[in-house]
Amino acid sequence: MRLSRNKKGVSEWMSWVLLVAFTVVLSAFMYNFMVDYTESSTRDMKKVVYNTDECRMVSLNIDSVCFSSQVLNITLENKNYIRIDGIDFRFYNGRFPLHTNQTAIALNPNRVKLVSIDTGVSAVTMVEIIPHVSKENMDIICSDKKVAADVATC
Q1: Which pLDDT tens digit goes with each residue over 85-126?
Q2: Which of 53, 115, 122, 40 is nearest to 78 (CA)?
Q3: Residue closest to 55 by CA, chosen among 129, 139, 141
Q4: Window from 29-33, 59-63, 96-100 with minimum mean pLDDT
Q5: Among the ranges 20-24, 99-103, 141-145, which has the highest mean pLDDT value?
Q6: Residue 134: CB partners within 8 Å, gap ≥ 6?
Q7: What is the DSSP string of 132-148?
Q8: How far apart are CA 118 and CA 70, in angstroms?
Q9: Phi and psi at residue 47, in whole multiples of 5°?
Q10: pTM of the predicted model, to two decimals?
C-alpha cells in the first residue's frame, strides 16, 4: 500500500501559517508603536499641565543689572512661594542676541540673590531671564514669566 501526498493541501496549510505569522508580527509592531506614542503624548500633556500650573506661581524680579569688564552683575528676587531651580540668561547687544547661558542657580522663595556671570563679550545692553522649575524629574521652562532689563555700567 502506497501513501500519496497531496501537495495542494500542504501549500494551503503553509499559506495560512504565513498569513497568521504576518498578522502576529504586524500586531506586535503596532502594539509597540502605540505604547511609545501614548507614553510620549502623556509626557507632553504633563509638561503642558505643569507648565501652566507651576509657572503661574513663579514671580521673578530683576532689582539691578550692571556690566563691567565682561562680568554681568544681576540682583534677582524671587517674589513668590515656589523655588526656582534654574535660570536661562539671554544677552543682547542692541537688538542682536549674543548668546544664551543656562545655569543651575537656585533661588528660594522670597529671597534676593546677587549673580555674577562672565559673559565673554565686551558689551551687553540688555538681558532676558527665563526661570525654570523642576517637578517630578521634569525641567519646566516658564517662558511666559521671563523678565528683561537694560544693562547699566558699573
Answers
A1: 989 888 888 877 877 777 888 889 889 999 888 888 888 889
A2: 115
A3: 141
A4: 96-100
A5: 20-24
A6: 85, 86, 140
A7: EEEETTEEEE-GGG-EE
A8: 6
A9: -60, -40
A10: 0.65
Residues 6+ apart with CB under 8 A from 139: 85, 86, 132, 133
Ordered domains of the chain (ranges, CATH): 57-153 (2.60.40.2550)
Q: Grid coordinates standing for 41? A: 503624548
Residue whose entry in the numeric block shows the C-alpha cell 501513501: 3
For position 58, what pLDDT does the model report? 87
Asked if 78 and 108 touch (Cβ cutoff 8 Å), the reply is yes
User: Three cell numbers at 120?
Assistant: 565673554
The residue written with cell numbers 556671570 in the block is 117
Nearest Cα residue to 123 out of 152, 88, 103: 152
Q: Tell me: pLDDT of 44 over 90.
A: no
Q: Please tell me the predicted confidence (pLDDT) of residue 31.
A: 94
